[in-house]
Amino acid sequence: MTSKEFQKLLRKYRAGNATDHEVRLINKWYQEFGDALPNWDAQQQKKIRNSIHQQILRAIDSTQSAEDRQEAANDRRWRRQLVRLAGVAAVLAGVFFAFYLARQWNILNPGDSRQQVVEEVVVEAGQGQVKQLTLADSTVLWLNGGTKVRFEKAFHKSAERKIHLDYGEVHFDVKRDTLKPFVVNSGFATTKVLGTSFTVKAYNELPYEQISVSSGKVQVSVQHGNQVHILGAGEFIKIGKENHRLDRGKTEQEQSSSWREGVTFLDQASFVELALVLKNSYGVTLAAGNKAIEKQRYTLVIDRKVPFDDIVEAVSAVNNNRIRKEGGQVIMF
Fold it and tell me: Does residue 256 sit in the same domain as residue 123?
């Protein structure tokens, strides 16, 4: 087989036009070098082999002199070509090895548009439970009931340690690292710190998100209007989801995250907030029997150690309401 015939066969193989006999010849030729493609899928193998073919063809072209490109051929020139093909085999072995190393280090091709698979960790706390989680960087999270967070498994190795709060409430006790800021992305804000403790509340049922700081300082970037706020210990910011209203104020540092110990402080809370606390603490749905109930406000302390029936009795007494149980919910009217 001449060099030109060999090139032609490789091009047919790469284009998928080779006959079964020609495919067997190429595969046999590969096997003679003692190297095999790693265990990749068909698409990956095709891509690698195409790249290898290009390397081979360039290697062959580079070894051909002007005299070799002439039509005449003889045995002497064929022997020379065998020597060149031996050099091509060495090129091929190097190509195999290079692609294998690239695969191992996840740098298959600088121009490759495929996204690397990122392993993500998802943690949820169900209703009626508080879950504590220690991250790889020694940061500690407390997830209130009805909460879901996500983060990359190797998040602590990135330039920023990012956590996604899909919904719920989390208290963060962040391990200080001045080189890698800790970032929490919630629906309407991004909170960035170096090392501090704070709480982010972002329940879907509530008309606002709230960030409260227990120690240190945090930077809160509000998505609407691109506003940035710096909060210190004992401060909070509340972000309206619909009207984008921002409320800043002072808070009792211990009370903002006391739910970790099962105690929740409500201060002029709406009925929606009250019902959410009871649902996350006891797993029971509290419903309003009329519009007047929905407008009521509640200031009280809810201790999870107290039985639910006693809590409901106390809550109904705040505004002289009555309660009744229907199915799996409690209706206040």
Answer: yes
